[in-house]
Amino acid sequence: MNRPDDRQKQIERLTKVKQGRDPQKVASALADLKKAASHGDNLMPSLIQAVKAYATLGEMIQILKGFMVPIWPLGSLKGEK
Predict the structure, then answer these.
(1) Radius of gyration of the chain from Cα atoms?
(2) pTM for the full model?
(3) Is 42 among the domain residues?
């Protein structure tokens, strides 16, 4: 279900997590993740560190987006050739 009150509760939980985490640990973990991605290293240790620092999935994906390349042509999922 996607009810407005569920969405609001999730936003409140996320806000509470962000307020309770150590911003320096999050920044350090995300910097390590970026470094690992830029060097082509195994990302799992850095991802685990980021999760333990309470980095959000969105924050981690934002870092990794710059290093990802599509494995299929854009539009191919729509049946375009």
Answers:
(1) 16
(2) 0.76
(3) yes
| Residue of 76, 48, 59, 68 lying closest to 23 (CA atoms) | 59
- By residue range, what is the domain housing residue 58? 22-66
Has residue 33 been placed in a domain?
A: yes
Structure tokens at 21: 């985490």
Is 1 domain-assigned? no
Q: For 17-75, how does the pLDDT look when each residue is reduced to its tens digit (9 = 90+)?
A: 999 999 999 999 999 999 999 999 999 999 999 999 999 999 999 999 888 776 666 56
The Cα 33–Cα 54 span in angstroms is 13
Listed in sequence order, the DSSP H helices in the chain are 4-20, 23-39, 44-52, 57-65
43-55 residues labelled b (16+ CB within 10 A) or e (exposed): beebbebbeebbb
Domains contained in the chain, number: 1
